[in-house]
Amino acid sequence: MTLRLQTIDNNLKGRLALVTGSSGGIGSAVARAFAAQGCDVGLHYSSSKEKADKLAHELSETYPSQLFVPVHADLSQRESTRALVTSLLSQNVVSSKHKAVSILVANAGLGRRIRDVAEIGEDDWDEMMEVNSRSQFVVTKACLAGMRQQGWGRVILVGSIAARGSGLNGCHYAASKGALTSMGQNLATLLAPEGVTVNIVSPAMIGSTGMIPPPISETWDRGCDLEELKKTDPGLAIAASILVHRLGSPNEVCEAIIIGVPGDPPCRRCIEKNQECILATSRRGGRRIKGQRLGYSRSTNDSYQASPSRPINRMNSVPAQGQEPREPDQHSEWLSSNLGSPLDQQSEDDEEPTGDAVRLKGHFTSSDLLNPSDALDLLAHVADMEPEGHAQTQDTEGDPENSTGMANISQGVCDYPPVTSGALTLSEASFLIEHYHDNFHIFFPIAYSAAFESSRILELIEHEPYLITAILTVATKDDPSWSRAHNACARHMETQISKLIYTGSTTVGAVEALLILAEWAPQPLEENLMIGCGKEDQGSWMLVGVAIRLAYLQNLEQTGLVQRVEGAPDHLSRKRIAWAACYMSDRQVSIRLGKGFWSRGPGPSVNLRAADFPYLQTQKLGNDNLALLFQAHLEITQLFSNAHDILYSSTSHREQLYIGGEYVRYIDDFSSVLRRWKLSWGGLSFIPRVKASLMLSYDFLRLYINAFAFQANLNRIVRRSKKRPSGPLFSELAAAPDARFIYESIDAANSILCTLNSFIDPTEAFKYMPLKFYLYVIYAAVFLFKAIFAGAIKPSEARGVRRAIYETISRLQKTSNNQQGLGQRYARSLRLLWLKMLGKSRSRNPEVEGRSDSLALASHGALQSQAESSEGHLNSDPFNSFSWKDLHSLGEFISNDGTSLFNDNFIISPEQDSVQGAEGPEHFSGNLYSGSLGEIDIIF
Q1: Which terminus of the chain has a lower count of CB atoms within 10 Å, N or C?
Q2: How many angstroms from the chain centroid is the CA of residue 105?
Q3: Superfamily (CATH H level) for 16-206+250-273
Q4: For residues 567-600, b (16+ Cβ closer than 10 Å) or e, as one string?
Q5: Which residues contact 269 (CB under 8 A, 6 or more apart)?
Q6: Reduced DSSP (H G I as helix, E B as strand, rest coil) percent helix, strand, coil of the chain, to 5
Q7: Rounded to an integer, what distance in angstroms lies between the CA atom of residue 892 and that of residue 533?
Q8: Are 805 and 781 in contact (CB under 8 A)?
C-alpha cells in the first residue's frame, strides 16, 4: 500500500457544518462564525425551536446564498439521537447540495449544579452520561461515515474543564465530560491518516449559557468571603474567583473552535463590525529612509496623528472586562521607551548638514575616556549616529510591526519554555505572579511593580524574562502540587543565569531576579538533602555576587549618589532600590558565611530614606507603605554590618577582644543604637506578619551582638581550665563579669522562638518568609542548646526552653508538605541534634547522670582536640564562634556516627505536633551538659 503526503485544505466555504445545541450561547456563536466562513449550517435544537428558527432567519438575511436549516433531536432519547444526522441530510434543500456532514461541532450538553455526591441519584448519572457522552458518540459516528468516504472532515467536541476534576458541577458531569474528552483523543489518533481531524475544546466559567447566572453587581470588596457572596450574587462570586475577574464569553470559545481557518476577506470580524476588510501588506524589502532618528521629534509636529494606513500596535488597547482602560501616561514603560513612533520617519532632507558632526564633537569632548570600556562606548555611539546603521535599527527594533517579539505578543504567541513544555499555562503563570505579590513580595519588595500586572503576562515574559522566571521559581517552591511547574521554571532559570554569566545584561530585572533567588534560595533540582546544614547560603552568596557584578556593569552604584529630585522617573527609583538591595543581600549572606563583601554599599555620604523610593511609597502595607519597610531593613542591615566589622571581623581580632575585654563598650554602644532603631520603627502600622519579620530581625541582631560576650566568657574559662578545680562552666551566672550580656543573649534567643511560636502562622506566613528568617530561628535554637549544655540556663528554666524548641520544630514541619522543604529539613536537624546530644550524655555517664564536672570535661576536650588535629577547632575553642559557617559544622556533627538515627522512620511528617514521642522532656536532666563536652564534636 502506497501512502501519500496530505495537502493542506482548510477551506470551509461551501461545506456543510452541523452544530448541536445551536440555540444556546456557545452554539449560536459558532453557527454565526461558520456562516461568516461561507458554510451551510445545520442548526440543531432540542426544545428551543423558536430560538433556532430566529437564528436561521437572521443568518439567511445576512448570507442569502447559504443554507441554514434547523433540525430537531432530543438527545436524551436514543431513537431521536440516531435520527439526527439522517434527518438533516434527508431534507431536500440539503440533499441537493451535500452528501455528508463535513464539519461537526458537538456542543450540546446537559449541566446541573449538583456538587454533593450524596445528592446525585442514579437517574441523574444515567441522564448525564446519556446526553453528554453517549449521544455525542452516536452523532459523531453518524457523521464520520460521510467524512471518511470523502476523505475530509472536521470534528470539534466541546468538553469542559470539569474533565480534569474541577468546575461547578458534580462528579457525574465531570465523568461525562471526561468520557467525551477521552473519546476525542482516541479518534484523533485513529482518523488523522484519513483526512479527518478530531479536536476537543474545554471551556470553563462561560457566561450567557444558562449555566452561570449573570452577575447582579459589578464590584466587590477585596478579600471578601466569596462563599457568602454566592448566596446573594452567585454570578459575581464566580467571576470574582477567576483570575481575570470576569466570565468567559461564547465568542471566545467560538474563536478557539474555528482557529486555523483561512484569512481570505471578508473576515468574520469585519462583517460583524460592518467594516471594509483590507489585509495588511508586508513592509519587508522596502526602501529604507535615511536620516531617521529614534525618539526624534519636532515641535512643529505636535498635532501629528497616526495615519489609518499605518496603525500603531499598542498592547492592552482593549481592556479586559472589569478593568479600567489605561491612560496614555500609564502605558507600558517598555513600549514608550523602546519603540519608535511615526515622528521618527524624517527624511534626510530635514536634517541639518552639520548636525551629526556638531553632536559627535560635543559628545567626544564631554565624555570621559578612562578605560577601554569608555573607548568602546564612544565607538558604539558613532555607529549609532551613522544613517545606514540607524535605518537598520529602525527596521529591526523600532518598528512595532516588524519586531518579532512584539508580533508574538500581539498575536498571543508565547515561546516561553515553561509554557511551551506544557508545565505551566499563561493563566497559571498569572495566578502565581499574583500569589508571589500577596505572600512573598512584602518581605523583600524589590521586584518592579509593573511585573505584577498579570493581565499583561505576555508582555512581561517578553520584556522581563529574568524577573518573571525568578518570581515563578520562588512561588512554586516547596509545594508538591506545583512540582512540575517549579522544575520547568528552575531549569529555565539555570539556563538564563548561565547566559548572564557569559554575556551580562543591561536590564535591572536581571539584578532583581538574582537577588530574589538568593533571598529564598530554592533547592537545586539535582540535590536531595534531608537535613538543613546551611548549604543554601553558598548558592545565595554566588547569586548575590553575580547580581552585584551585573549592577556594576549597569552603573547602578551611581544611583545612590544622585540627589533626590521631585518627579524623578520610576526607572531611577527602580535602579536605586536594586542597588540598595544588592548592599543588603551582600552584607547579610556574607556575614552568615563569614566571607568578604562584594559591594561597596550605597556610599558613606548617602543616607537613603523612604522618600528616595517613590514607587515603593505608592504600595501600601497596612497604614504605612513599603518604602518605610525598605528603609527599616536598610538601617538594621547597616547596624548588622557595623557589628560584624567591629566584633567579628577576623579570628585574631576576636582573640584580642576576648583577652582585653574592650568588647564591653562596643556591645553597650550597639545595644543603645539598636534600642533607638526599635523605637523608630516599632510603632509603624504594618500588617502583622511583616511586623513579626521586623521583630525577628531585631531580636536576632540583639542575639548576635550579646552572644559575643557569652563566647568570650567560654573562651576564657577553657583557657584557665588547667589551673582551676573542676566544676560547672557557669556555676553562678550572676557572678560572671558579663552576666548582663549573657542574660540578654538568652532573652533574645527565647524571644525569637516566642515570636515564631506565638505570632507567626507557619502555613500562612512563615512558609513565605525568606531564608534568613529560618536561619535566625535555627541559630537561636542552637544557641539555647549551647547555653543549656554550658550551664548558663538553670535546670528549672531548661524545661521551658525545651518546650519552646519542641514547638519550634513542630512549626518548622508545618511550613511545607514537601519532605525536601526548607522547614522540614531544619526541623530534622534540630531533632537529630537533640537526640544525639541525649544519646552521647547517657552513653558517657550511664551510672552518674547528675555529675556537673563540665569544666574538667571541657578542658579534656580542648586538649584532646589539639592532640588529634593540627588545625583543631577555630581559635582552639571547643565551642568555636557564632559564625554562620557553623551550620555546616552542625550538619557534620549530627550526621557523624549517627546513621542509626537517620532512617525512613525518622522523617517527620507535617501532621506531628511535637517530637516528644521519642524522648520526652523529663528525660533531659538539668545536668545533662555535664557529659557532653568531652569530645571534639561539640556544638560549634
Answers
A1: N
A2: 38
A3: NAD(P)-binding Rossmann-like Domain (3.40.50.720)
A4: eeeeebbbbbbbbbbbbbbbbbbbbbbbbebbbe
A5: none
A6: 60, 5, 40
A7: 8
A8: yes
pTM (2 decimals)?
0.55
What residues form DSSP beta bridges with 198?
155
Q: Mean pLDDT highest for which of 314-318, 399-403, 435-439, 452-456?
A: 435-439
Look-up: residue for cell 495566578? 431
- Strand ranges across the sheet with 196-201: 68-72, 40-45, 16-19, 103-106, 153-158, 196-201
- Does the structure show a pLDDT above 70 at 472? yes
- Grid cell of 857 as nine digits: 570535661
* Rounded CA Rg of the chain: 35
Give residue-wise pLDDT tens across range 368-426: 565 565 666 666 666 655 554 444 444 433 343 334 444 344 344 578 999 998 899 98
Phi, psi of 66 (to 5 degrees): -110, 160
- Other Cβ atoms within 10 Å of 142 Cβ, number: 20
One DSSP character per residue, 355-377 reads HHHHHHHHHHHHS---SHHHHHH
> For residues 293 and 355, what is the distance between their CA atoms, to the nearest angstrom?
12
Which of 619, 582, 628, 616 is CA-nearest to residue 602? 582
Closest by CA to 23, choosing from 53, 57, 3, is 53
Q: Which of 233, 133, 216, 135 is nearest to 180 (CA)?
A: 133
C-alpha dist (Å) from residue 555 to 446, 448, 502, 608: 18, 18, 19, 17
Residue 666, by phi and psi: left (phi above 0), alpha (psi -120 to 50) or beta?
Answer: alpha
Cell of 835: 537526640
Nearest 5°: phi and psi at 16? -100, 125
- The DSSP element (H or E) to which 139 belongs, if any, is helix 135-150
What whole-number distance in Å separates Cα of residue 697 and Cα of residue 640? Answer: 10
Distance from the first to the final alpha carbon of the chain: 78
3-state secondary structure of 401: coil
| SS3 state at 101 | coil
DSSP assigned state of 331: S
Which residue spans of the chain are classified as CATH 3.40.50.720? 16-206+250-273
Name the CA dihedral angle for 109, 115, 120, 125, rounded to a multiple of 10 degrees: 30
User: Rounded CA gap, 856 and 430, in Å?
Assistant: 63
